[in-house]
Amino acid sequence: MNYYNYFTEIEEHFVRRRGKHLLVSPMDWHLIASWRDAGVPLNIALRGIDIAMDNYSTRHVRGASRVNSLCYCHDAVMEAHATHLESRVGESNPEYETSADAFDSPNSEEEFGKDVISAFLSEKISEIESLLVKQHECCAPENIERVLGRLRELALNVQSGPTTDTEALERDLGILDNLLFEELWAWLSVDEKETLEHEAKNDKILKVYKKQLSKEIYAKMRENFLRDKARRKFHIGELSLFAKF
Fold first, then answer.
1. Mean pLDDT by 10 residues, the chain (245 residues)
2. Coil/strand/helix, residue 20
3. Domain residues of the chain, as ranges?
4. Between helices 166-187 and 215-234, what is the axis angle to 10°?
């Protein structure tokens, strides 16, 4: 099971259990990432989804509305993970189980071959180069140029190396994405920031998440919402191999 399949297996399993095709939302994609970051192994995440969907089926009559978000399964996934960790008490450091336990092949290029990764990096480099051309007169570009320079290094490494460690690459991209977002957010006016904050406050999906998720995870989902909005304004996609849009 490689790094990318953690996302796709969960998405496909949820859609299959739901019983009708559904495009999983970008916010649900971020929720999967939160499970990954919490060290929830793939089989435990799938078990939690099964528990949640089984409980839903027993409480609702046939023909009732379907579950439309993975958020419904979050509590069951977290409970299954807690039970899993409790069952491992006495083993070496079970409390420190990380996302690495969910992936067996960090160097696998089954989903991301060299050409695919190179094309992705080339696309992001072009987006940022276009951004610099548009913004150079009004904004200081130093941090953006740092991001661009590192992306070019990563692209060169992918082309020259025999294989690519997609998990290590994703970590590098995450650092660059944080730096990029900080710069984009700084470029927004006060009014633009207030508008995005207002959209986050009134977003229907986020309201559902706020009711069902812990404060920490909800805060991360809200941050991701603002990040996505800021990126869209500047026509910059997320620096992640697993970006949903």
1. 76 87 79 87 94 86 70 92 81 44 44 84 94 73 88 94 86 92 91 95 87 87 90 90 67
2. coil
3. 3-102, 114-234
4. 70
- In one-letter notation, the amino acid at residue 116 is V
pLDDT number for residue 208:
83
**pLDDT value of residue 93:** 47
State which amino acid sits at residue 130.
Answer: S
Q: What is the pTM of this model?
A: 0.72
For residue 89, which phi and psi values (nearest 5 degrees)? Answer: -60, 130
CB neighbours of residue 65 within 10 Å: 6
Burial of 204 (0-12, 13-18, 19+ CB in 10 A): exposed
Whole-number Å distance between alpha carbons of 80 and 75: 9
* HEC readout, 31-94: HHHHHHHCCCCHHHHHHHHHHHHHHHHHHCCCCCCCCCCHHHHHHHHHHHHHHHHHHCECECCH
Q: Alpha-carbon distance 4 to 25, whole Å?
A: 17
For the chain, state the CA radius of gyration: 20
